[in-house]
Design a protein that fits this description.
- The complex is a heterodimer of chains A (354) and B (514).
- Chain A has 354 residues and is mainly alpha-helical.
- Chain A contains 17 helices and two strands.
- In chain A, strands 1-2 form a two-stranded antiparallel sheet.
- In chain A, helix 2 crosses helix 3, helix 3 runs antiparallel to helix 4 and helix 13 runs antiparallel to helix 15.
- Chain B has 514 residues and is of the alpha/beta class.
- Chain B has a domain of 130 residues.
- In chain B, strand 15 and strand 16 form a beta hairpin.
- The termini of chain B are far apart.
- The chains are: A mainly alpha (354), B alpha/beta (514).
- The interface between A and B is large, with 47 and 71 residues.
Chain lengths: 354, 514
């Protein structure tokens, strides 16, 4: 029987599992949105990634002769879900499988399992996939609501065909079912000398659609609304704190605002930046991953600002259209340093020592 | 700046930094204080305070009266011990005291004679307003009063009127933020007039101009009782302040921050910013000592917990066995039950109930194993969620600190302000991984204290051996100097001699030559 002599002798009842389950619940709106946009493909990918992550965790723990209890603590399932939500719907299933194995194997278990990974496992897997398979990772399916896709993703059997055997097994040309993402479109157009506003007009871009999520993109990244519902739920139940999401998004918005005031034809407006790509998903669900983010409130603000600067810089000047995931993983590297230099002021003491 | 921003955004509650709001379980808040009958034997430990144990003044067979001093204080940081009732001293030997290790302390066993006769040596000082504060302070010292909120710090030390640090505000601490405990609450409801009178005495002793009675908003009846009395006196120097319920607001420094917005600088005492805190029970004891001449022989204690059939607030004699008190509340079997001395957040777990109640006993809890297991689960890895640093009232980073303590990186731990930890347990309470953080901090503090002792011992022996070396060297130098001097004189003599010799040698030569 395990009862410490040491106080306290009551506990608030919080547990790792409860925390993980809460985050999974918070992702349900975004998951539903992905099913609305990409039909059965979204379901297949989410289930595949979650199961693979849990299986990889189980095998890794068995291999290391550790207790396999953590498989069910929800953290592996959450990693799988998060990874799936950052993938494009058209990704071949074996890449998703590989990504899930990367996430848990190389992203988490090699460092010693839960609590010891320096990087967000889902994001590191996504980056590995992006670098290894740049084409497949930036091919976006036409979402169902536009009604122009050549394939019916709500139909189980034809979607299964696409999922299991790839786009080449279909009678359509790839062009008939894919399109560019807003971020990618703006970047390509701009490189061809088209201004931001012209590019957006040509794309038929609408802020409302971007907010609700009626656009293409990774499974769970499209809908700001769905992600915000989940994010507010997490804030309300105090699983995450406001510091990281707020400072992250605010930094991107402020930088974009300054730049677009200086040269509106060259730099995209702030609202476009906030609603585009994986920013909101990263800010609320990736950057706030407790293990790989700073512990203290001050540190979290610094971390969020850093993420924001890197995200906007990569989007604006980098080779990739989207930079949010790179930003989070890069800032993950800085977490120990942030933890060392941004300590809160101890009661009754002037300033913190370093 | 960030803090004020947070406050305006409403993300933190302003009173003091951090803290938690646990389920308060104040089951006994409505039950009035019952007097516990005299047990068949009273066991009075010689140390019921911070500081040195007392020296007994009685021998086996002596008859004692209630309030008679039976052990005298040793040293400054100490408080005398008095007989809790009249009766016969039957034994003086070691007995278990409330301590998690189950350690013992020499105790005086008194068999009550049932008459409960008081020792009338000390006269009431009803004219205390004309008395010198020093005289009143001596009375508090003689009556053995210590902080009854659990710290057991001798009260007279705090009541020193110091010209360099005048006390402006006396804070009467009616916060009682530990779950379950309601003894101060009931005292405020039932003895509000006495407590207010005691507060006036304390203010007189310190020359304080203001007083704040701080009560949390979960004790509205206590607030009303105290307010009524303050209004009755028409006293505008004393005000009753209602604070939101938050643990650990009852901790002195946190309470000062909540009330004044000021922090006590590190390494300083509240009196350095002109504030002094007193506990409700302590102030009542001061009033009894001054107005009635009564030494401290009893205290109010909350008996509660899910394993206690009839939770109650009880006025018990110091030295009453916990088993006897539990029995008064209907608890007789202790299988699958854990006993806590104090509240659940900071109290000690005791190994058995055959332990006497002492001056610092605020509560006696009996919690079922099933409930205890919920709190004490197997430790899981830290997921760095940061809840611990959010709730830490002194703004530490508990998860890092615990890592340093666990890995015996004591210097790092000290650098991360280990010694500012007040062990309130808020971090352990919120930890999703059930890490016993406070346990690690206690370990770290103990190890560091041990290391410092060893270091200072090593330092002393180093100084000693260096001193010896220096002395030997000095002696050697002195000897060498002496020798040199001697040699020099010898040489000069010999030079003279040789010169003379040469002279004498040449002379004879010449003589010879001659």
């Amino acid at each position: 029987m395990l009862i410490h002599l040491s106080s306290p002798h009551i506990h608030g009842g919080n547990s790792i599992r409860e925390t993980m389950v809460a985050v999974i619940l918070a992702l349900i709106p975004a998951g539903m949105m992905s099913v609305y946009l990409f039909g059965w493909l979204a379901v297949f990918l989410i289930v595949l990634c979650m199961l693979t992550c849990m299986l990889t965790e189980f095998i890794a723990l068995k291999w290391m002769e550790r207790s396999t209890a953590p498989v069910m603590d929800g953290s592996a399932a959450l990693t799988g879900l998060l990874l799936a939500l950052t993938l494009p719907a058209s990704i071949p299933w074996w890449m998703a499988l590989l990504g899930s194995i990367f996430a848990i194997g190389l992203g988490k278990q090699v460092y010693g399992g839960l609590g010891y990974n320096p990087f967000n496992p889902a994001l590191s897997a996504r980056i590995i996939l992006l670098i290894s398979f740049p084409l497949q990772m930036t091919t976006w399916l036409i979402p169902m609501h536009l009604g122009v896709s050549a394939i019916d993703l709500y139909d189980f059997s034809s979607t299964w065909q696409l999922f299991a055997f790839g786009a080449s097994s279909l009678p359509h040309a790839l062009d008939a079912i894919t399109m560019a993402s807003p971020l990618g479109h703006v970047k390509t157009e701009w490189s061809q000398g088209v201004g931001v506003s012209d590019a957006l007009r040509a794309y038929d871009y609408s802020y409302l659609d971007a907010f609700i999520g009626r656009e293409t993109g990774s499974l769970g990244e499209t809908s700001a609304l769905a992600l915000l519902i989940g994010g507010i739920y997490l804030l309300a139940r105090h699983t995450i704190t406001w510091q990281i999401p707020f400072s992250f998004i605010a930094t991107v918005a402020i930088l974009a605002a300054i730049a677009s005031i200086v040269d509106p034809n060259h730099y995209a407006p702030p609202l476009f930046h906030v609603l585009a790509g994986g920013l909101i998903l990263c800010a609320f669900f990736m950057a706030t991953d407790p293990v790989s983010s700073p512990v203290t409130a001050v540190g979290q603000i610094v971390f969020g600002i850093g993420c924001g600067i890197i995200t906007w810089s990569i989007r604006t000047w980098g080779g990739y259209p989207e930079g949010a995931m790179f930003a989070v993983v890069l800032m993950n590297c800085a977490v120990p340093l942030i933890g060392h230099y941004f300590r809160p002021k101890v009661y009754g003491k002037q300033g913190s020592k370093s | 700046m960030i803090k004020s921003l947070l406050n305006t955004l409403g993300f933190t509650s302003p009173p003091f930094d951090g803290g938690i709001t646990p389920n308060m379980c104040k089951w006994t808040e409505g039950s009035s204080i019952k007097t516990c009958p005299l047990p068949p034997v009273l066991i009075v430990p010689l140390k019921q305070h911070i500081g040195q144990p007392c020296t007994p003044l009685v021998k086996i067979g002596d008859l004692v009266l209630r309030g008679q001093k039976i052990a005298k204080a040793e040293g400054y940081l100490s408080a005398p011990v008095h007989a809790p009732t009249s009766g016969k001293v039957i034994k003086i030997e070691e007995h278990a005291i409330p301590h998690p290790s189950g350690m013992g302390m020499v105790s005086i066993f008194i068999e009550p004679d049932g008459k409960d006769q008081r020792d009338m040596l000390l006269d009431p000082m009803t004219n205390w307003l004309q008395r010198d504060p020093a005289e009143l302070r001596e009375r508090v010292r003689m009556c053995g009063i210590v902080g009854l909120g659990g710290a057991a710090f001798p009260t007279f030390i705090k009541l020193l009127k110091d010209q360099r640090h005048p006390i402006e505000t006396v804070i009467l601490n009616g916060i009682e933020c530990e779950p379950f405990l309601t003894n101060d609450h009931r005292l405020m409801v039932e003895n509000s007039a006495t407590i207010l009178h005691g507060l006036h005495i304390v203010m007189h002793m310190l020359g304080a101009k203001k007083a704040i009675i701080a009560i949390e908003d979960n004790k509205i009846d206590a607030v009303q009782a105290m307010r009524e009395n303050v209004d009755l006196l028409g006293d505008d120097l004393i005000r009753v302040e209602v604070l939101p319920t938050r643990y650990p607001q009852g901790s002195e420094k946190q309470l000062i921050e909540s009330l004044t917005g000021k922090q006590v600088p590190a390494g300083k005492l509240p009196m350095h910013i002109g504030v002094l805190c007193q506990n409700i029970g302590t102030v009542k004891a001061i009033d009894d000592a001054v107005m009635l001449g009564h030494a401290i022989t009893e205290r109010v204690i909350t008996v509660s917990g899910d394993a206690v059939p009839n939770p109650a607030n009880m006025l018990v004699r110091l030295g009453t066995s916990m088993r006897f008190i539990y029995a008064q509340c209907g608890l007789e079997k202790f299988d699958n039950i854990q006993i806590l001395h104090g509240g659940p957040m900071m109290g000690e777990r005791l190994r058995h109930p055959d332990i006497p109640v002492i001056k610092s006993s605020t509560g006696l809890l009996a919690i079922s194993d099933a409930r205890m297991k919920v709190a004490h689960q197997v430790e899981e890895p830290c997921i760095r969620c940061g809840h611990c640093s959010e709730v830490c009232p002194v703004n530490l980073v508990p998860n890092l600190l615990a890592d340093h303590c666990r890995n015996d990186q004591l210097e790092r731990a000290a650098n991360y302000d280990l010694f500012d930890c007040i062990e309130c347990g808020a971090c352990s309470y919120v930890c999703p991984s059930h890490i016993p953080l406070v346990h690690y901090f206690r370990y770290g503090k103990g190890q560091t204290a041990q290391m410092r002792r060893e270091q200072s011992f090593a330092e002393v022996s180093r100084l000693r051996s260096e001193g010896r070396d220096a002395r030997l060297q000095r002696e050697k130098d002195e000897k060498a100097a002496k020798r040199r001097k001697l040699r020099a004189t010898l040489r000069s003599e010999s030079v003279l001699n040789t010169a003379n010799e040469e002279k004498t040698a040449t002379q004879p030569k010449t003589e010879v030559n001659d």
